[in-house]
Structure formats: C-alpha cells, structure tokens
Amino acid sequence: MIGEKVLVERPDLQKLLDALRQKGYTTVGPTVRDHAIIYDQITSVEELPIGWTDEQDGGTYRLKRRTDQALFGYVVGPHSWKKFLHPPVLSLWKAKKNGKNFEIVSNNGEPPQYAFIGVRSCELHAILIQDRVFINGKFVDPHYQARRERAFIVAVNCVQAGGTCFCVSMKTGPKATVGFDLALTEILDGQRHYFVVEVGTEKGAEILQQVPTKKAQPRDLQIAAERVQQAAQQMGRQMDTTDIKNLLYRNLEHPRWDEVATRCLNCTNCTMVCPTCFCTTVEDVTDLTGSEAERVRKWDSCFTMDFSYVHGGSVRASPKSRYRQWMTHKLASWIDQFGTSGCVGCGRCITWCPVAIDITEEVRAIRESEHSKEKGE
Ligand code: SF4
Ligand code: SF4
Predict the structure, then answer these.
(1) Is the beta carbon of 268 within 6 A of some atom in ligand 2?
(2) Which residues have C-beta within 8 Å of that of residue 200, sequence separation ≥ 6?
(3) Which of 167, 188, 247, 285 is the most exposed place for a label (fewest CB within 10 A)?
(4) Is 123 left (phi over 0), alpha (psi -120 to 50) or beta?
C-alpha cells in the first residue's frame, strides 16, 4: 500500500535486487571505482560501497573507511543518474547507402529498463527537473522519455550530509518525499542492521512482495526520522535563496563576475557533474567509403567557446560571460524557463571544480555586497 512502511533486514536486501532483475530490470547502483563512488551496473548488494564514506569540500573528494558496515554511508559522487536517462553519447540515427539512395536506420533498439538503487532526495528532484525539460514541455525527447517511463527508483534517505551538500536550502532533501517507487532508510543500531522501507507506488508495493519484510515498530520509525533529521542539521553549505532570481538579474554587471572569471578554468566539470544540466551538441560523421553516415548527440557545456558560436563568433566569448550565464541560468532564468530552480543543492559542482569555485559563496558575495551598499559601507 502506498505510504506503508515496513522493515527489511540487511541479509534480505539482496532479494530486492533479485526481484528487480527477475522483473527484467538492469540494476544500477553505487560502487567503488578509481577511488570514487560511481554509478554502474550491479547484481549483488556486496558490490555496494560497504564500509566506505566520503569526505568532500571545495575541489576535494576522498574516500575513507567507516567503522561500520553501512551500505549507503556516503553522499553523492561525480556521477548522477542523468548518465543513464540522458546518455553522454547517443547515436540518433544512421544513413546507409542503398544503391543510389540512402536508407535511414534507427540505431538504438529497445530502450534499457533500469532500476536505480540508492537515489538520494536531491537526485530525485534533479530527475523531476529533467522531466520538465525533456518530457513536460512543448518538445518531448523520445529517448529520455522511453528510459524514464521504464525506470524503477529505489531511493535512500540520507542519514549523514556531505561537506558540500545544501539540499535543505534548496528544499530538495535530505528526506525523499516524491518520485520514488521504494525509499530506504538504513539503520545500524547496536548489533542490528536493517532498513525502514517506504512504499511510493503500486509498482514498488508489487516488487516488495518478493522480499521478506517485518512490521515496522514505532521505535524503528522514530530512529529513522531522527537519523534523517540529523543529516538535515549537518549541511556543509547553505544558500539564501530569498528573491534569488531578481538578485542575480539586478547584478548582471557586478564586479564579482570579473573576479570569478580570473579563477574559472572553463574546464566544464561543473556542467558535466551537475544532475540537471542537459545541453547537448550534435555531430554528423561519415565512414571513409562514404557508404554510411551517423548523427550522434553528445553532452555539451555552456563553458565551451563553441557552445554559443553563431556565424563567425561566440556570443559568450569571455570566461566571465560563460560563468555568469551558467550561474544565472541555474538560479534565475531556469525559473522563468521551467518554473523551478535548476539547482538541487547536491554540491557536485563545488566538489569537482578543480579551483574550488563555490556557487553558494558566489551568491553570498553578491548578496552581501548589496547589503553593504544599502548600509552605505
Ligand atoms: S548547480 Fe551544483 S549544487 Fe546545484 S544541482 Fe548542479 S551540481 Fe548540484
Ligand atoms: S566553475 Fe570550476 S568546474 Fe566550472 S568551468 Fe570553471 S573551473 Fe571548471
């Protein structure tokens, strides 16, 4: 039943993955690779980052051993679920020579059916934002739509926050409230290790029937609520979003944009790791014999010169204009365009910026300069 909460013991969690795989889902979840927690195909709970946590700050990410065997004792890493729903490289179609004519063939076959394991609340909100961009507007992206409609989402409530997290400021976490089929809260309590599981959809309830569950006692629910509350109080960053759209629109010529431009390397990392950034470019490639051509869509970034190239030049030729475009789009013009902020407070752009540029700090600097002006300082 939707909204129902039950318990699943740690040894039984594998049965959830098994039930999803039996239903035809490809199970994808967090796992350790190259000293980071990334998202990849997993078939066993043992492939989760058991006993690992992460330390994050501006331009800093390190994995560390925990003192317990938690399965979800870390926050978000460099990957986001957009790489599965909106792939970095996607062949749109191929044209093959057929005598004197060309025949257009689609390249993609049956869309994958993913079950995402361990989706954080900020990430659920990021997926809902990408839904607005790709499905709910005037133009629908059929590739995203097909993957999205087939996806099953197992959320995980955060019981600890990272050094660059600010979901509380953006009202996107740490508790999963929308957009999941099942939501887990992991509890290690003395010798006990179990999950409080909340049912979000009928689809979630149906899968849960394949997993041994117990009745949740009031104490279990209280512990789960307290752990999530604890995460809410640990946010590494904060952002005052009061009238943020007009704050940024009022300050398009603020000297802070020049200052940040002296540090920004235009490396595009912030856009690649951001779970809501969606811009792409299209490349047409032909084979050497001229018998086959392909149109490929690839992630692009507003930090590249080519991104705004129009007939002989780039519209945003300076690093200053590119950083300003990115930040004002995220926090201001996104609201006009899609009716929501483009930022969910996941902190990835802060952690993975090689020079530790911090979106929360940039907003604070502009806001404080206005306050100083008002006070005549
Ligand atoms: S702008 Fe930064 S903090 Fe906001 S959603 Fe994107 S990566 Fe996360
Ligand atoms: S803000 Fe940081 S991550 Fe983004 S383009 Fe500039 S240097 Fe790279």
Answers:
(1) yes
(2) 2, 153, 155, 176, 179, 180, 181, 182, 183
(3) 285
(4) alpha
Q: How many CB atoms sit inside 10 A of residue 111's CB?
A: 16
Ligand 2 center to 55 CA (angstroms): 20
Amino acid at 341: S
| CA 260 to ligand 2 center in whole angstroms | 10
How much distance in Å is there from the Cα of 261 to the middle of ligand 2? 9
Q: How confident is the model at residue 125 (pLDDT cuts 50, 70, 90)?
A: very high
Cβ neighbours for 276, distance < 8 A, ≥ 6 positions apart: 82, 126, 129, 130, 330, 342, 343, 344
Give pLDDT tens digits for 223-249.
999 999 999 999 999 999 999 999 999
The whole-angstrom separation of Cα 121 and Cα 116 is 13
Establish whether residue 94 lines the binding site of ligand 1, counting it when its CB lies within 6 angstroms of any ligand atom.
no
Ligand that comes closest to the CA of residue 327: 1
CB 11 within 8 A of CB 220: no
pTM over 0.90: yes
Residue 318 CA to residue 30 CA, distance in Å, equals: 37
Convert 328-349 to b/e letters by CB count within 10 Å (16 or more is b): bbbbbebeeebeebbbbbbbbb
Phi, psi of 371 (to 5 degrees): -60, -40
188 CA to centre of ligand 1 in angstroms: 30
pLDDT confidence of residue 106 = 75
Ranking 4-18, 86-100, 197-211 by mean pLDDT, the lowest is 86-100
pLDDT band at 77 (very low <50, low <70, confident <90, very high): very high
Residue ranges per structural domain of the chain? 5-88+108-232, 244-277+302-375
Ligand nearest to the CA of 352: 2
Q: How confident is the model over 162-221, as pLDDT tens digits?
A: 999 999 999 999 999 999 999 999 999 999 999 999 999 999 999 999 999 999 999 999
User: Which two three-digit tokens encode residue 196?
Assistant: 């409080």
User: Rounded to 5 degrees, what are φ and ψ at 311?
Assistant: 40, 70
Q: Which of 60, 61, 164, 265 to mutate to test the pocket of ligand 2 (most atoms within 8 A of CB)?
A: 265
